[in-house]
Amino acid sequence: MHGASIAAEGITRLGPDDLTAVKGLEGMCFAYHWSEDQLRLGLEKGAYVVLGLKAGGLLLGYIAFSLAADEMEVLNLAVHPDHRRRGLGSRLLGAMLEHGEAAGVRCCYLDVKPSNKAAIDLYRNFGFKKYGVRKKYYPDNGEDALLLRRCFRIANAS
């Protein structure tokens, strides 16, 4: 399937039956990835939301995020290496932001490695701006984390 053109199905909320696929994609995309127990917190217990994009039964990408009060945080965004640069990350991020806006979220936060230029470009295209740095944050390589946020315009705010 490498390099094949596949039409992605709609974005759906992932659940317990998607654990193996999410775990596999985690392993492909991240040097330091979540444990099965961490994945179960979202997929089975609802501690956070996981939206996914599939084609022909293959998980092409997912976004995991938390919602608390009027804030949300991107926990992970992953796109299958064979299907990058096709707008799938944009579709997932856009769906998550729509979900947050509908839930009354005021701001969305995330952290990203400075070396991940593609992700930084994606987030900037969606209006995220840098507000800080966490020194030596990532355990796999000690890289800093750029802290980004995007605030929503709140209609009729007083």
Describe, in plain words, how this protein is organized in 3D.
The chain contains four helices and seven strands; from the N terminus they run βααβββαβαββ. It has one domain (11-151): Aminopeptidase. With 158 residues, it is of the alpha+beta class. A hairpin with a 2-residue loop joins β3 and β4. It has helices at 19-29, 36-43, 88-102, 117-125; strands at 11-13, 49-55, 58-68, 71-79, 107-112, 129-134, 145-151. 27% of the residues lie in helices and 31% in strands. It is globular, with a radius of gyration of 16 Å. It has a seven-stranded mixed β-sheet. The longest helix has 15 residues, at 88-102. Mean pLDDT is 88; it is low at 1-6.
Short recap of the structure:
The chain is an alpha+beta fold and 158 residues long. It has one domain: Gcn5-related N-acetyltransferase (GNAT) (Aminopeptidase, 3-Layer(aba) Sandwich), CATH 3.40.630.30.
